[in-house]
Amino acid sequence: MTHAPTTVLSTDPREEGLEPQSLWAVRITAILNRLVHAFAKHWLFATNALVAASVGLPVLAPALMARGHERAGRAIYTLFGPFCHQLPERSFFLFGRQPVYSLQELEQLIGPEVPLRYIGNPALGFKMALCQRDMALYLAMLVFGLAFRLIRGRLRPLPLRLFVLLAVPITLDGLGQLLALWESTWWSRVLSGALFGVACAWLVYPYIESGMRDVLRVIRQDQHAMPHSDSGVRMKTASSGESCSAPATPCPRSATGPQRQKPLI
């Protein structure tokens, strides 16, 4: 006695005949593919947003302090503390008497013992959460990143020789300060930091752009290589395990069962 085959609808041919563990693997792979595709397509926007936050938050910190939001302001100083020395004599001040103070000036204004991470007060103003050199570096990277959007794919990476040349000012200025050979000035910190920021972005961004274009090309090739059924819904008979694109089309029997497609990553 034969039973009429029962038809079961499956919306994704890749999920037919898979064990639960394999089914989850296919779904997780599909999600990862989408994430990789999205990042490869929008990596410059994500990078510019991160660099913009590295410029904007240090400026927001003194603004919050000046308006009485001390808790939020100190949280930003703490957030950037591991990435910068935050010395007051090497930082810009906002909402005070002047934008920069030397160590001698701070000692005259607040006493001989100036805390290493002194934030400021309403009279003197409040310092930014990053030093002058770091602020110039990140701002230069942000400007370069915004300009790179117009020339991406055409700009070649900065030659290593030029990168070393642009890194000389920050190296000499920083080492001279560290070894107490001379006292760097705010404009030397800004200039050397900005040159190094442009050098870093110019060296790295074209390589990232090239790599992300390769990722997108591979994803598109794999998507085109995937076999597509004639219909969006495949028919699977529960009694025999056969699947068809349309009820009127006979399906050949497969000795190996449904084939799993190659994941994209």
Could you explain the architecture of this structure?
- It is built from six helices and six strands, in the order βααβαββαααββ.
- The chain has one domain (32-222).
- The chain has helices spanning 20-66, 70-80, 103-110, 132-151, 160-178, 186-225, and strands spanning 7-10, 93-94, 120-121, 125-127, 234-237, 243-244.
- It is elongated.
- With 265 residues, the chain is mainly alpha-helical.
Question: What are the defining features of this structure?
Answer:
single chain; 265 residues; mainly alpha; three-stranded antiparallel beta sheet; elongated; disordered C terminus
Give the topology, please.
Blueprint: E1 7-10, H1 20-66, H2 70-80, E2 93-94, H3 103-110, E3 120-121, E4 125-127, H4 132-151, H5 160-178, H6 186-225, E5 234-237, E6 243-244
How would you sum up this structure in a few lines?
The chain has 6 helices and 6 strands.
Estimate the mean pLDDT confidence.
83
Give the CA-CA distance, first to last residue. 47 Å
Low-confidence stretches: 6-11, 229-249, 251-258, 260-265
Strand content: 5-15%
SS-based class: mainly alpha
Question: How helix-rich are the residues, as a percent range?
Answer: 40-55%
Shape: elongated
Separate helix tally: 6
Strand segment count:
6
Major sheet description: 3 strands, antiparallel
Mind telling me the C-alpha Rg?
30 Å
Strand order of the largest sheet: 1-5-6
- Estimate nothing, just give the exact number of structural domains: 1
Order of helices and strands: EHHEHEEHHHEE
